[in-house]
Specification:
This protein is an all-alpha fold and 212 residues long. It is elongated. The chain starts with a helix and ends in a 7-residue tail after the last helix.
């Protein structure tokens, strides 16, 4: 079916709306490429330095990738104009927020009990700095597209990108403070990330991601 026919059958879907949907899908594909690199480097640095914050941040990249895949699915083929597809995508994005929290909490408890302490990581500092610079632009662009498309899934993915930038900032601070002996900052950041993930998942599930 050509775009003009689809617009005719769905009057609310203007050419501008379809263009925004394609842009959302394209941004999600770009994000997937970067996240594949980010997660690999983040986890490698985290395990080498035994940093909960870095490991949690690297794992969050997989969660973000899941959200990006969901948005690509949402705006591919006949699903582009399907209200039910948006509802499914919105709930799936919410679940993706919730996947991270249990892992973070479990590892905080384990590492505190074992007396593990993280070490400085040059690789961790480099990759988190790059994300701190790049992710806000992606996140804001997706949130604007989400508002135009009335797509909570797209806005939720954008929120995850902004969370990634905030996580990167938190990780950078914790890595620096570790050099001063403030070891407790690292698990504190991990717990904070878990709390934020649960909160944002709840907001996305109820369709509030476009409104905050």
């Amino acid at each position: 079916m050509v775009p003009d026919q689809r617009i005719h059958e769905h009057p609310a879907a203007s050419a501008e709306w379809l263009s925004a949907a394609r842009a959302a899908r394209s941004l999600s594909v770009v994000t997937l490429v970067w996240l594949s690199v980010e997660s690999t480097l983040g986890l490698a640095a985290g395990f080498a330095a035994h940093s909960l914050a870095l490991i949690g941040w690297g794992l969050s990249s997989f969660v973000e990738a899941a959200a990006s895949l969901i948005v690509v699915w949402r705006f591919t083929g006949a699903r582009t104009l399907s209200p039910s597809a948006e509802g499914t995508a919105r709930r799936a994005v919410a679940v993706s927020f919730w996947l991270l929290a249990p892992y973070l909490i479990a590892h905080v408890v384990y590492d505190l009990d074992a007396g593990q302490r993280s070490a400085p990581s040059v690789l961790g500092i480099a990759v988190t700095t790059f994300s701190l610079i790049s992710m806000p632009a992606l996140g804001m662009a997706k949130r604007r597209l989400g508002a135009r498309l009335a797509s909570t899934a797209t806005s939720g993915e954008g929120t995850q990108n902004l969370m990634c930038a905030a996580m990167a900032a938190g990780v950078l601070v914790s890595l620096w403070l570790n050099t001063l002996g403030w070891w407790w900052v690292d698990p504190a950041v991990a717990v904070a990330l878990a709390v934020v993930a649960v909160r944002e998942g709840r907001r996305a599930w109820h369709g509030h991601a476009c409104c905050h």
